[in-house]
UniProtKB/TrEMBL annotation:
Binds 1 zinc ion. Keywords: Cytoplasm, DNA-directed RNA polymerase, Metal-binding, Nucleotidyltransferase, Transcription, Transferase, Zinc. DNA-dependent RNA polymerase (RNAP) catalyzes the transcription of DNA into RNA using the four ribonucleoside triphosphates as substrates. The gene is rpo10. This is DNA-directed RNA polymerase subunit Rpo10. It catalyses: RNA(n) + a ribonucleoside 5'-triphosphate = RNA(n+1) + diphosphate. It is an enzyme of class 2 (transferase). Its EC number is 2.7.7.6. Its cofactor is Zn(2+).
């Protein structure tokens, strides 16, 4: 689960996660996708680039 807002600047980022995931999954360059989604601050970009989805991995252990 990606956070709703960027930890540093507070910009809403969660609404763009599905499109980012879809487009990068189709082989598009992550930098190009982030530019198209209007994420220019490096703090917001790192939220997308560094995110690892662990919810499916951890859910069976709860």
């Amino acid at each position: 689960m990606i956070p709703v807002r960027c930890f540093t600047c507070g910009k809403v980022i969660a609404e763009s996660w599905e499109e980012y995931k879809r487009r990068t999954g189709e082989g598009e360059d992550p930098a190009t996708v982030l530019d198209d989604l209007k994420f220019v601050r490096y703090c917001c970009r790192r939220m997308f680039l560094a995110h690892v989805e662990l919810v499916d991995t951890m859910a069976p252990y709860q």
